[in-house]
TrEMBL record:
GO terms for cellular component: plasma membrane. This is Sialic acid-binding Ig-like lectin 15 isoform X2. It comes from Notothenia coriiceps (black rockcod). Signal peptide: none annotated. It comes from the Eukaryota. The keyword Membrane applies. The chain crosses the membrane at residues 232-256. The keyword Cell inner membrane does not apply. It holds the Pfam family V-set. SUPFAM superfamilies: Immunoglobulin. Residues 1-108, 123-207 form the Ig-like domain. Keywords: Membrane, Transmembrane, Transmembrane helix. One of its GO terms (biological process) is regulation of bone resorption.
Length: 264
């Protein structure tokens, strides 16, 4: 088996994973069954499977085959290359190809090294919100997606860079450990502590493919007639197009789950 150790792709575009093989001459007159899987061992997922029957013009996939995957090569010409349409960040991982030559002398060929697929994308701010209370203080949080991992910075009202932000990774649900050659961590959450009422905070994310920004406004509390103040209002700006502001009171702490959006 011959494969390419690493293939890079851009999110939203098709990508081809090359794989070729050699086999005995008599296999030209027998059926071939081939498959592609993501990951290795017990955590592997079969993504594509098809059968090339003797005399048939193509390799026929099963009825439940995901249409994002299709065979780019011709097995009769020793080519098992796989095409993935509209590559997504979740497609990043290590892929393995295998072919079985059916007949009297049943033999199989399998790639042991795998092809590492790296899907890259510019930064995208998925959510921006704040947690806390007037008593304990507020923390602003910014969840960012991108590959290579974006550099996340917080800017103040005058555009000055703010120090003290904390960054943590967030593994997607359904992902596998990298030791299995599967899905990668490409989301991060940046935290900025001790945000103050009456201030504006900008979350800025960048990588070599682009840049994205979103703005958080913290509005001062409104005093009641009796002198007590109402809970702090948070107004969020995200690049997602939604225009809903929803406040929920949870144990005396106000949290914003909806957003009021516009581009800066």
């Amino acid at each position: 088996m011959t494969v390419q150790p690493e293939v890079r792709a851009l999110e939203g575009y098709p990508v081809v994973l090359p794989c070729t093989f050699s086999h005995p001459q008599h296999s030209q007159h027998t059926s071939l069954q081939l498959l592609w899987r993501l990951g290795h061992g017990q955590g592997a997922s079969v993504l594509f499977r098809c059968t090339s029957r003797t005399g048939a013009p193509s390799c026929e996939p099963g009825p439940q085959q995901d249409q994002r995957y299709r065979l780019e090569g011709n097995p009769r010409e020793h080519d098992l290359s796989l095409r993935i349409n509209s590559a997504a960040l979740q497609d990043s991982g290590r892929y393995y190809c295998r072919v079985e030559v059916q007949g009297r002398d049943h033999v199989s060929f399998e790639d042991k090294i795998g092809t590492r697929l790296r899907v890259e994308a510019p930064p995208k701010i998925l959510s921006l919100w704040a947690e806390g209370s007037e008593q304990s203080g507020f923390t602003a949080l910014c969840r960012v997606q991108g590959s290579p991992p974006p550099d996340v910075q917080w800017l103040g009202t005058e555009g000055s860079m703010l120090e003290g932000a904390m960054l943590e990774g967030a593994m997607l649900e359904g992902s596998h450990p990298l030791a299995q050659g599967s899905r990668e961590c490409f989301q991060t959450v940046s935290q900025l502590r001790d945000v103050s009422p009456g201030q504006q905070y900008t979350c800025s994310a960048s990588n070599p493919l682009g840049k994205d920004q979103a703005v958080l406004y913290v509005l001062p509390p409104r005093p009641h007639v009796g002198g007590a103040s109402t809970p702090l209002l948070l107004l969020l700006s995200l690049p997602l197009g939604a225009k809903v502001l929803l406040l929920l009171l949870l144990g005396g702490v106000w949290a914003v789950h909806g957003v009021r959006c516009w581009r800066k």
